[in-house]
Amino acid sequence: MITTPPNVQAQYQAPGRRYTEDDLQNIANQNVQPPRGGGPASAARRLEAGQCSEFQPTTVEVFLDEGVIATIETGQGSGGTLFVQSGGDRTTNAAPVPPQVVMAVEHYGRIWRMWKRRFRSGWRSISRISFTIRIRIRSTSSLNRGTDKADELVMLGAHFDSWHTATGATDNAAGSAVMMEAMRILKATGLRMRRTVRLALWTGEEQGLLGSRAYVTQHFADRADMQLKPEHSKFSAYFNVDNGTGAIRGVYLQGNEAVAPIFQAWMQPFKNLGMTTLTIRNTGGTDHQSFDAVGLPGFQFIQDPIEYDSRTHHSNMDVYERLQGPDLMKDAVIVASFAYHAANRDERLRGSLCRASPNR
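RESULT FIELD:
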């Protein structure tokens, strides 16, 4: 019999996990950094991927001058998991970059070795091997109409774009499905809602919250000058899901202390599902920040990480089989309940002074 030494067993950590009570307490007490949504890579991660070199702009210029139509690069990850990040400046006036194809090191290495070496097949010597690689790049809204406060608005949202290495199941088809199911529940119950509840599925989140920012600018306020539009005074709340497939465990309050007792009451029926935690802190990297940036109350739910950071976030493993069906069903019920309460309370929820970081 072969056994694993105790010290090895103690060091092993499964890639998928749920929050413990201690984890949730640390989040509530702001002792740990909260997860971000599925936006562009952090500086540290780009540095690890070799994308922050001072020579990169020069290299890109050389590629463009030489007529390079795409680059093939190795990605980060192990055990068959491939992570991809970044890809160029997201600003509209940025210089162009060639499309990037990211491969697992095993696949990249094989192409490199075949290109580098000379192969012999029988009596025939092959001194030059060429490859043909085909690249194809492909780059909604629902409504529950209110009654006596129909001109006021509660919004649900999630981003509907995803990275190309897989199908984007946890980032963020899961969040989109939860929000659509929450809207279906509200419609199916036939419950009367005083405010209008609107669902938006955003594009461009992965490139810098482009879809939600454009929507907020068009309807509520431009963060550049903070000139408020009439619809700003009719807005009550925005709820977002974008942290994978895990169960909802609470809410990030985004510095909005006034809503804490309100949310505590709304959470009470779901404590037996593990939804117990409120934290005053801000969590970044996803579409609720577009609303917070102009003083509107936008919130992201706290979710069990499962494999989000370790396996499925921007990787080739982000596929349907990684979804946790029971969690998503519970999440939809919780979101529907929050939307219902926000739509029917006498007063609108109020925004805080919390603002999104300038680069997001």
